[in-house]
Write a structure and sequence with these properties.
Bound molecules: zinc ion
Structural class: alpha+beta
Number of helices: 4
Strand content: 25-35%
CATH architecture of the domain at 7-128: Distorted Sandwich
Order of helices and strands: EHEEEEEEEEHHH
CATH superfamily of the domain at 7-128: Glucose Permease (Domain IIA)
Shape: elongated
Number of strands: 9
Distance between the termini: 33 Å
Largest sheet: 9 strands, antiparallel
Radius of gyration: 20 Å
CATH topology of the domain at 7-128: Glucose Permease (Domain IIA)
Length: 190
């Protein structure tokens, strides 16, 4: 998976120092978007450590109930603990808070209570790039895909024609436009 910002410290390096995650070399103020699906804010805090060990600064974590994705050293948190921001909304902005040598975002991923390598987690791609379709377009596409699946199961011989038809209808949905997602950070977490 490729991120729009270079990995400045990879998973292996983080594991070696007992803090599994990755660092992306983001400038201050990069918008982080809620991925598709249903996500809830599971952590929204300024995290400091009095003992002098690294602190995360402004930190947010979101979860879809299976996966937890955490983001540290933020400039701004857009939502408080428990909030359920819509997909495509900006939930935070990158920054340089906490114990850092420069602006970056530290990211962790937790599955089944265990920190895992975030590098290949697909939802992270959408965190850095707002989904290209509006919610309405996405809904139309999903129903089209479901209908196509049923059609193809009923008539496997019709696949080439069905695929051409599908491509045409996807293009029509792309061209239909719609209301763009809001990119505004709303609310102030405490
Ligand atoms: Zn880090």
């Amino acid at each position: 998976m490729s991120f729009p910002y270079p990995i400045s410290s990879d998973y292996a390096a983080h594991v070696a120092r007992g803090d599994p995650g990755i660092d992306l070399a983001t400038p201050v103020g990069v918008d982080l978007y809620v991925p598709r699906g249903t996500w809830q804010v599971s952590l929204s805090r300024f995290i400091t450590r009095a003992d002098g060990s690294p602190s995360y600064g402004e930190t947010m974590e979101i979860t879809d109930g299976i996966l937890r994705l955490g983001f540290a050293h933020l400039k701004r948190r857009g939502y408080a603990l428990g909030a359920m921001p819509d997909p495509g909304k900006v939930f935070a902005q990158t920054g340089d808070t906490g114990n850092v040598t420069g602006p970056h975002v530290h990211i962790w991923a937790i599955k089944g209570g265990v920190k895992v390598d975030p590098t290949n987690i697909e939802a992270l791609q959408e965190v850095f790039e707002v989904a290209q379709f509006t919610d309405e377009q996405a809904k139309m596409l999903i129903s089209l895909i479901k209908q196509s699946e049923e059609d193809l199961q009923a008539k496997p011989g019709a696949i080439p024609g069905k695929l051409r038809d599908l491509a045409k209808r996807v293009k029509a949905i792309e061209n239909a436009g719609g209301t763009p997602h809001s990119h505004k950070v709303t609310g102030t977490a405490t």
